[in-house]
Design goal:
2 domains, 11 helices, alpha/beta, Alpha-Beta Plaits, elongated, Rossmann fold, 36% helix
Length: 307
């Protein structure tokens, strides 16, 4: 990306009395989707409150669109936020809830109605637009929160645990919506602790644990940086013992474990190993049905970094 990042945190710390919420965090967020990942209590919500201007950092600098976001209306109008927990106006209908927020944001009555209807459609709530929010299910309330975050078409969208309370269909729809927002040029920051779901939204992540950033970048970049940890490769074959004998002495093969119909390798040079495996299969020494690196995924990377 050319120019400044949408969000930049430089050596940011925040504490709640004697409790450290964030410790010396530096991060940049650019257009596209970035997953902010970590267990509950890791510091994700604190990061989001800082970048949305709800509170000020105890130490360090936070810049959003090149400005300090705390109590800054110029920044607030260009971002949308769906917090994990928020009190909604239960006495209003879903449509009127969004219209009221848009009117408060400075849009005309006609434009507010049009934007509210578009947002309700995008989050799958058109059929419930005239129902009172107080009668909404947990999943419907979550959809409405996401709808209010995107109704004014903000450049920055911050979604804290957006899949909570949604059924499988709703989760799939919101994953697709997040991906579409990122593809449309928005900067989307989405937090989560169910790693495989965030992995469906983006390969770009920041891993947070105990108030610190353990790693950032794409999943592939982070995994490649962990060269000291062998890659685990599972190979389905008709002759696992024969395959083990052929490959065990290859450079970079640390160990092999044989199971029924499978051989499990630990390798430090996965590219060279896969090349050699392909040659062995092509030469017909054994039949290789399939193979995969079982730890080139977000859960495995996160487990390793936390451990």
């Amino acid at each position: 990306m050319n120019g400044a990042p949408t969000v930049e945190l430089e050596r940011v710390s925040h504490w709640y009395g004697p409790v450290i919420g964030l410790n010396d965090v530096s991060l940049k967020f650019e257009p596209g989707v970035t997953g902010l990942l970590g267990p509950n209590g890791a510091g994700k919500s604190t990061l989001m409150r800082l970048m949305t201007g709800q509170m000020n950092a105890s130490q360090g600098g936070v810049r959003v669109f090149g400005q300090a976001p705390f109590a800054n209306p110029a920044v607030a109008g260009r971002l949308g936020h769906s917090p994990e927990h928020e009190q909604l106006w239960d006495h209003l209908t879903g449509r009127n809830h969004l219209v009221a927020l848009l009117r408060y944001g400075g849009f005309t009555a006609v434009e507010s109605r049009e934007r509210a209807d578009r947002a309700l459609e995008r989050v799958g709530m058109t059929a419930a637009a005239e129902k009172r929010v107080g009668a909404y299910s947990k999943g419907m309330r979550q959809r409405l929160r996401i709808g209010q975050a995107i109704a004014h078409d903000p450049e920055l969208v911050v979604l804290d645990e957006p899949l909570n309370g949604l059924d499988p269909v709703g989760r799939r729809e919101m994953i697709d919506l997040v991906r579409a927002l990122g593809a449309g040029g928005h900067t989307v920051i989405v937090s989560g602790h169910v790693l495989h779901e965030v992995e469906k939204m983006t390969r770009r992540i920041a891993l947070v644990h105990h108030g610190q950033v353990l790693a950032e970048g794409t999943i592939d970049e982070i995994r490649k940086a962990l060269d000291k940890r062998p890659h685990h490769v599972r190979v389905a074959t008709d002759d696992p013992r024969g395959l083990a004998r052929l490959l065990l002495e290859e450079p970079g093969v640390v160990s092999v474990r044989v199971a029924k119909g499978e051989a499990h390798f630990e390798v430090t040079e996965p590219g060279a190993f896969f090349d050699r495996l392909a040659r062995v299969a092509a030469d017909g020494f054994v039949v290789v049905r399939e193979y995969e690196s079982t730890d080139d995924n977000l859960q495995a990377v996160f487990d390793y970094l936390v451990a």
